[in-house]
Amino acid sequence: MPGGATVLAAATNPDRVEAPVTMKAYLLCVFASFGGIFFGYDSGYMNGVLGMNYFINLYTGLPIPGADATQAQKDAFTLPSWQKSLITSILSAGTFFGAIIAGDLADYFGRRITIVSGCGIFIVGCVLQTASHGLGLLVAGRIVSGFGVGFISAIIILYMSEIAPRKVRGAIVSGYQFCITIGLLLASCVCYATQDRTDTGSYRIPIAIQFAWALILGGGLLLLPESPRWYVKHGKIDQATKALSRVRGQPQDSTYIQEEIAEIIANHEYETELIPSQSYLGSWAACFSGSISNPQSNLRRTLLGISLQMMQQWTGVNFIFYFGTTFFQDLGTISNPFLISLITTLVNVCSTPLSFWTIERYGRRPLLIYGALGMFICEFIVGIMGVAKPGDSSIVKAQISFICIYIFFFASTWGPGAWVCIGEIFPIPIRSRGVGLSTASNWFWNCIIAVITPYMVGTDQGNLGSKVFFVWGSTCVICFIYAYFLVWETKSLTLEQVDRMMEECGSPRKSAGWKPHSTFAAEMGLTQEGKLPVSTHEKIGADHHDVANSAPVPATAV
């Protein structure tokens, strides 16, 4: 675009700001969700490994109990709580920092390259873990892998949200959560198959399989286009048009492509013109600028994203997927805890696809509100039964049934819903950092839960047993209240329309009734011929910009 004014076809009708969904566009977006397998598998395989006889023997030196071993000997044959805590939580510590760093890298190098780089870092961590024969190298490998997973988990959500068509964006981003559940299931299957091996293959095989996920995702993304919105932010309108043409399956001169790129440009200029460009630290500070009482301020949006991911972890579901095997072992009434963990993971996988339909049919708010309601009811029931009749095998079976129902509620609501929301609530100037901070919050609380849970339920520590479900039930009550008062309804809106909705609604509880009535292109200088001038955007987009966070600017329909 350098060298003079250029015009793009633009729309005044808010329903004409995006091309129809094609199968090619859908498949391009769906492939990106494959990144969830990293999250799921890397989170899940350690659940099984921590309960393997050979692994416990290798790391503690305790002899494997024979068939004639006493119950006391069997109970003593377990990893110390501090080792479980360290091995599990160190991954989340790495992902926390990786997710924060990824936001800057994604803004500078692009969304796609940042994800591919994460795959490379992840492979290095896998090499270290596979080669480990002791705690030190295993922990080092876990933290390096964590950095890679942090890159991937933060930016894959950003990338999918920016390229997905609005009518199926919720379903496609939900596919990321579905891939997480697939990863958890694969991890459970592999650990179930190797649990009885009496050599290092028992834990090295589950670790080494992760190489495949990195190669598939990294290699595939090299063939996909960069986010058109990233190109617009950097003033590269030609490349943005080409990229959008590929992800929408339409020719570059299509009216749909011209109108959508014009709307993206107009929205970006609207936001960046309100506040002049700032320094690097100033651009980070922009994420926390504005008043907390202003619903559309950057501060409010950032806190919403951070707290939303915190609440997802507070549901307690990772207690089952991280420590389910060892928890069921400690109950002492289950003959095959590996099989029970496999069943709970299978429930997780089968329940998630329901959200593909419900999140677009009913919206984000209802899913999160009623999902939290279902979860806290199930968790209180599990806790009450366990306290009423501890050690009763029939009660344990009933508990497992309600745990599966609880997982169903999570997998079909909060599992995908939290990821969908954080990809939609941030404006372009702070989107990569906002999503990065939100994802870092997920991993921070993931880490906290991984650290404290072994001390809460470990037989050598708190030994809460079933009482731990009163803790998770109470936090789900908080999730219920949170979703009702603070979660916005963003169903069927473009990312640009979400910005306008937050400006005009004033309260998340009113957001479901808001309808788009104008376009940014119309308000940013649409000509009588239906064109949007784009003469200075390359200069504007080359700088780092902020977003206004003071009183909302009134919208003027043209």
TrEMBL record:
Keyword flag Ion transport: no
Name of the featured protein: Glucose transporter
Localization per Swiss-Prot or TrEMBL: Membrane
Molecular function as annotated in GO: carbohydrate:proton symporter activity
Source domain of life: Eukaryota
Family according to the record: Belongs to the major facilitator superfamily. Sugar transporter (TC 2.A.1.1) family.
Organism for this UniProt entry: Kwoniella mangroviensis CBS 10435
Record's keyword terms, sorted: Membrane, Sugar transport, Transmembrane, Transmembrane helix, Transport
Chief localisation class: membrane
Record-annotated Major facilitator superfamily (MFS) profile domain positions: 28-491
Catalyses which reaction(s): myo-inositol(out) + H(+)(out) = myo-inositol(in) + H(+)(in)
Gene3D superfamilies referenced in this protein's UniProt entry, alphabetically: MFS general substrate transporter like domains (1.20.1250.20)
Entry's transmembrane regions: 25-41, 86-106, 113-131, 137-159, 171-195, 207-224, 303-325, 337-356, 368-388, 400-422, 434-457, 469-487
